[in-house]
Amino acid sequence: MGVRGAFATLIGALQSVVGLLTFILAYLIYYNPDILRVRDILNIQEGYIPFFILTLAVVSLFSIISGLLIIYEWTSTKEDKDEKDRI
Amino acid sequence: MRRIEFKRELGLFYGIIIGLNGAFGIEFFVLLEHAIFLAGPAVVLSLLLCGIITMLTLFSYCELGAAISRVGGEYTFAKVAFGGFTSFLTGWLRWISSVTTVALASIGLAQFISYFYPVNIPIVSVLAIVIFTFTSIRGVKKLDVLTVFSFIGIFTLLVTLGLYDQSKLVNLTSFSSIRTFMPKGVSGVLAGIMYTFSMFVGVRALIAGSTQIKNPEKNVPRAILLSIVILIVLYCLVAFIVVGVAPENYEGSEPILTYAAERIMGPIGGTLITIAGISAALMSLTTAMMVQRSIIYGLSRDGYFPRFIFSSERKFGRHLSVIIGSALAILLAASGLIVFIGYIAGFASLLVFALVNLSLIRLRRVMPRLSRPFKAPLYPYASIAGVVISLLLILFIERSALLIGFEFIVAAVIVYHLKMVGYHRLRLAVGGINLGIGGLTLFTLYLMRRGIITIDLPQGLRWTFPYLPAFIGAIFLLAGILNIAGRRRKEP
Q1: Where in chain B are the domains?
Q2: If you measure CA to CA, which chain B residue comes closest to A32?
Q3: Per CATH, domain B12-421 is 1.20.1740.10
Q4: Full residue range of the structural domain in which residue A30 is found
Q5: In this predicted model, which residue has the larger pLDDT, A4 or A19?
């Protein structure tokens, strides 16, 4: 794997992980479990909860999609190169 | 494309078994309690009407299944009839319906396990999905059709013993007058029909299995009719017994069916129903996992999802298709909101039913000469009624579930639109948004460092400043550059 490809895959994976963690945070804000009172830790007022959840959910889904696109871009580029080498 | 031909060696009896096997899922076990809350004793009437409505739509399934003998079910019907967004929406809603079934089955499984040993319902339901995600990847054989006989046996025993010793049916007076029978009026009955919809839709498994049935044009409609009649009789009788036994506004920790069985048959009854519930949950989990995976394959085959990621020919794609559905199911199951999930399942099933009826109407108009081994009776009245009733029943869904349901439709519109704009432009747009988010994050961080804006971070999070926002901003900036810098290729 080339340096550019490895770097792109790393960034894509990191962005997907950030998206996943953001989604988990949104879910924890919604569920607010007894063992981890996220709303208290983040000082989130009751009226702002839907706003936080919606924003975090949108950002997280976007991050996951963007991260996967980058990984896809690299992998398919590598496949095209392999195909060219075979020819 | 190579077509797979099945030997037609199964008769009417086995057709009924396939239909019942599909229908005996977790839905009846977990949704009955709230259906009784909605309709009161008239839940019996709701179940009867729901069965009849389902049967009419299943005849539409039957005509379409016989005329379009390709895999894909509802998605394929809508694809042939409409194509475009309608077919995608049908597949999407069918996928949502399967995912909600996974969530319902896992919560049901946890509830029944807690009958033997008290457990944390959300945690156990999430664990069940995780375990089944991995077993589903490796392949699980469907449980034997003997289960059908066990279910019928247990339900029949419950009903027979309940009717034999009526002293335990303390609420029989509620059936004596219209006021007590329908405490919430006609709207309660309609809400009950809406909510019990998912209890019958499993019979559509018969359409998928019709490739193996002899004389399908005769045996499949008969099997549908008989399966639904058996279900209506069983469900109505069991609901009658449960309403008769359970106190009004039952709020016990165990499922209402288990409570009723315990009251009628003692601890053995509770154990029997619990074992049946666990079997139903396992069957539903296995089937729904397979269905949701095959729908994702179908949608990605047609380019709605990236073919590379979800391709069934790649190991990574096979795993990811299961994991995506499981992740959504976990989110739903972890909430433990069984009533809410039941509403979403009903919403998706009702819309799919409406779309299947619309597909039938459309195909009769645009392809009148299509070979139809079976024709749905009472056309077009039954199909139009199917569309209208399905859409009307959606009005009885709880408002928050309706909102989530419409959000799923908005998501479908976005996904479809993204497919239409093409990969290159999509990547440019994503890259631009990434640059925007990254730039905004870093700029906000700069303003905070300079003291131009102040945000009062909680004590426990101060250590993350400025490293975490700087890291996230940098990731988004780099991701934006990488998305835009990717080379342009020809659109397929």
Answers
A1: 12-421, 424-485
A2: B335
A3: yes
A4: 3-81
A5: A19
Judged against a pLDDT cut of 50, whether residue B1 lies above it is answered with: no
User: Which ipTM was obtained for this model?
Assistant: 0.86
Taking contacts as CB-CB distances below 8 angstroms, the residues of chain A near B484 are none
Q: Which of residues 49-78 of A touch B (CB under 8 A)?
A: 59, 62-63, 65-70, 72-73, 75-77
Q: Are B60 and B76 in contact (CB under 8 A)?
A: no
Q: Report the DSSP beta bridge partners of residue B10.
A: B213
pLDDT at position B141 is 43
Which residues in chain A are closer than 8 Å to B426, comparing Cβ atoms? 69
How distant is the Cα of B123 from the closest Cα of chain A, in angstroms?
Answer: 12
Overall domain count for chain A? 1
Cα-Cα-Cα-Cα torsion B190, B196, B202, B206, nearest 10 degrees, comes to -40
Judged by CB atoms closer than 8 Å, whether chains meet at B334 and A69 is answered as no
Distance between CA atoms of residues A57 and B329, nearest Å = 16
Mean pLDDT of all residues in B17-43 = 86
User: Residue B390 carries which side chain, given as an amino acid letter?
Assistant: S
pLDDT at B2 over 50: no
Nearest to A18 among B460, B472, B486 (CB): B472
Q: Is residue A87 situated within a structural domain?
A: no
* pLDDT at site B279: 85
Average pLDDT (B286-297) is: 80
What pLDDT score does A81 carry?
A: 56
Give A1→chain B minimum CA distance, Å.
Answer: 16
**pLDDT tens per residue across span B102-133:** 998 899 889 888 888 888 888 888 888 888 88
pLDDT exceeds cutoff 70 at A53:
yes
Give domain status of residue A86, yes or no.
Answer: no
User: A27 and B478 in contact by Cβ < 8 A?
Assistant: no
CA distance B28 to B105: 11
B34 Cα distance to chain centroid: 17
Average pLDDT, chain B: 83
> Which percentage of chain A shows pLDDT scores above 90?
14
Asked if the structure places residue A61 within a domain, the reply is yes
Note whether residue A41 is domain-resident. Answer: yes
**Cβ contacts of B450 within 8 Å, gap of 6 or more:** none
Question: Does B118 touch chain A if contact means CB atoms closer than 8 Å?
Answer: no
Q: Which residue blocks in A1-87 are alpha helix, DSSP H?
A: 3-31, 38-41, 49-86
Closest to A33 (Cα-Cα) out of A25, A45, A21, A43: A25
